[in-house]
Amino acid sequence: MEIHKITTNKVNQNYLPSKKEDTKLLTIQNTDRSEVLMKELDKMAGNNIAFKGNFELNLSKEELEKRTNKDYLITKKMLKADAPEYLALADGDKETLKHLVKAAYILEKINMQLDNPHNLEFKEYLDKEIAKGNKNAEMTKVLFDAQKGINAIDSMSDKIHLAKGHTDLPGKGVYPEDLTKEEFHKILTKMLNEGKDEEVKKILTQRSVVERKGDELVGIDYIDKFKDDFAKMADEIDKAAATSTNPDFTEYLKLQAKALRTADPMLDAEADKKWATLQDTPLEFTITRENYEDEMTGTIVENKELSKMLEERGITPIPKDFLGGRVGIVNKKGTDALMAIKKYLPTLADNMPYNDEYEQNISTKGDAKQTMVDVDLVAVTGNVGEYRGGITLAENLPNDDKLSLKIGGGRRNVYHRQIRFISDKAKLQERLDAILDKDQQKYYLDEADHWFTIGHENAHSLGPKKAGESLGKYRNIIEENKADMGSLAFVDLLTELGMYTPEQRKQIIVTTVTDNFLKSKPTLSQAHRVRTVMQNKYFADRGAYEITPEGKIHVNIDKVVPIAKEMLAEIVRIQIDGDFDKAEKYVKDNFVWTDNMELIAQKLQKVNKTLNGRTESELAEKLLAE
Ligand SMILES: [Zn+2]
Asked: For residue 499, which phi and psi values (nearest 5 degrees)?
């Protein structure tokens, strides 16, 4: 489970353009005649509808110029080629890192196909157009590389489609493009009636691409579907293992490579289990698997009849995984700071609401089975590196639907240093002046957001262990809400226990409530932002904050934690009950965009113009070229 994708409520304007980049921005602003001519030719040929290998760019020149301008496009910088963290590595680990970067980019290519069936051909089209001198294609490519796909959402929750006629698909690239929810349910029902339970099981796992086969559907395991690319990835990972200096990391890499060669969930489970134990390794490598993007599988719970048929057959529909590659260098100092929370985890588990009704990932006694590292990032590829309204700040994996947890594996939290760094303090102050009561500005601290994130990630390991598939499209919203409220609900307890000072307690509370104000109203499919609005509404109703006559947020500090506890208990109740209708009602009751939220949003929009974001990976690019 990932932490909220930051940016809407954060000031991440740490992009300082170099002279070279400025020139590039200038040169792509000329009118492009060849593009205009191309469009005319297409029209004449009657090719208004995109066909294979040909596309029409969707964004106008003006729109592209705006979105690729540094005021609207922020850049997160991964480690530089001469980063001291890299230079300090043993020679063997430097070699390992190189192969892991190569593996991660192969995974990006695979994930692009899971994301949208036209991503790769569109990318090819853009490259061809750029070679012809098409400036609009050049700017479109900047956005394509940033969001890693044709379709995304921006920081204002507006949808961005880079190719005309190619809008977002509910089944992304993992279901047939023309499959509707109704037909999907109909085919599954028919197949179950014909006793094709095993086939249906393959369609509804988290690791298959679903295709049409006659008038039925068939699920093909990811490993079989992308056999060549996974084999290439496995080769790189084996090469990485050959020079790695850390025996535990080496063992994990070997297990991971093996899992990419044969389609067998147990091989993944064994790799995941080893991965989750990694604590003192020089390097970080993860194949991230998260299922926030799939909007097709979760619709099944809305069909009571089909749900019942599946339940009777012991089949659980699990949304499809989207894959990411994370490569980095473990930061020792940052990791030591994270570990402070570890000894308190059993106490937190003990204090979870209704904890006598479920088993938790974190045992209330003994080993917490949870590792945590702070990582300097070299590359974030595929799903984990997509900048779509925001980018992943930290992750706690594997998620509850994974087999490794059932064979006794633990979980591992990874925090992304280069994503959380804020370098433009002046911009931050400008934002605070616009929205936060002057007397409380002293309590706003960007570091406190990191502490909140630590609480959030650990809270994912607390509470009911079951994956909550029965909550359908509300599952992720509810789970993320639990993690936030878990983080906030324990702030007083952790202060009593000595983990936070009273000053830090105020900083976490004020920073969190302030950051709950978004730049724009999200859509219901943005789990990460919907829950933020829900909390904000819940807090407003119960007096956790008020808006001063000057239109600034004033936090009622002592009220916040008790309110968070109340919300946490309600959320955990919904997870235990697993009732879709209750979850829907809870989300709808609380997902209310108030006038005060709009007031603050307007102010945020003035300070922070960001619409899109991207990552820049200098070291990774150098290693790829070696
Ligand atoms: Zn999360």
From this structure: -75, -40
Measured in angstroms, how far is the CA atom of residue 456 from the centroid of ligand 1?
Answer: 6
Please give the structure tokens belonging to residue 181.
């929810």
| Angle, helices 425-435/595-607, rounded to nearest 10 degrees | 150
Q: Sheet of 394-397: strands edge to edge?
A: 283-290, 322-330, 370-382, 411-416, 394-397
Q: 399-432, pLDDT tens digit by residue?
A: 989 999 999 999 999 999 999 988 788 989 999 9
Report CA(460)–ligand 1 centroid distance (Å): 7
Average pLDDT over residues 308-314: 97
For 153-157, 257-261, 277-281, 568-572, which range has the lowest pLDDT when averaged over its residues?
153-157
CA of 536 to the centre of ligand 1 (A): 17
pLDDT given for residue 365 in this prediction: 65
Please check whether residue 383 is in contact with residue 324, taking contact to mean a CB–CB distance below 8 angstroms.
yes
Count of CB atoms within 10 A of residue 407's CB?
A: 12
Measured in Å, residue 385 CA sits from the centre of ligand 1 at 16
* pTM across the whole model: 0.89
Residue 452 vs residues 255, 335, 502, 515: alpha-carbon distances, Å? 33, 15, 15, 11
Compute the distance from residue 476 Cα to the ligand 1 centre, in Å: 9
150 lies in some domain:
no
> What element of type H or E holds 431?
helix 425-435
Confidence of residue 47 (pLDDT cuts 50, 70, 90): very low
Task: Calculate how far, in angstroms, residue 69's C-alpha sits from the geometric centre of ligand 1.
Answer: 31
Place of tokens 């904000």: 536
Question: What is the CA(455)–ligand 1 centre distance, in A?
Answer: 10
Domain count, the chain: 1
Written as one letter, the residue type at 260 is L
Q: Give the Å distance between the CA of 548 and the centre of ligand 1.
A: 31
What value does the mean pLDDT take over residues 200-215? 98
Structural domain includes residue 311: yes
Q: How far is the CA of 314 from the centre of ligand 1 (A)?
A: 28
What separation in Å is there between the alpha carbon of 1 and the centre of ligand 1?
Answer: 5
Is 57 inside any structural domain? Answer: no
CA of 186 relative to ligand 1 center, distance in Å: 33
Going from the Cα of 199 to the center of ligand 1, the distance in angstroms, rounded, reads 32
CA distance 9 to 553: 14
Question: Cβ atoms within 10 A of the Cβ of 588, count?
Answer: 12
Look at residues 374, 618, 415, 412 and name the one whose alpha carbon lies nearest to residue 6: 415
Residue 522 gets which letter from DSSP?
P
3-state DSSP assignment of residue 216:
strand
Domain region containing 426: 228-622
475 CA to centre of ligand 1 in angstroms: 12
Residue 113 lies in a domain: no
Q: Count H helices, E strands: the chain?
A: 28, 13
Between the alpha carbon of residue 216 and those of residues 174, 212, 308, the distances in Å are 15, 6, 20
Separation of 450 CA from ligand 1 center, angstroms?
13
Share in percent of the chain as helix, strand, coil (round to 5): 55, 15, 35
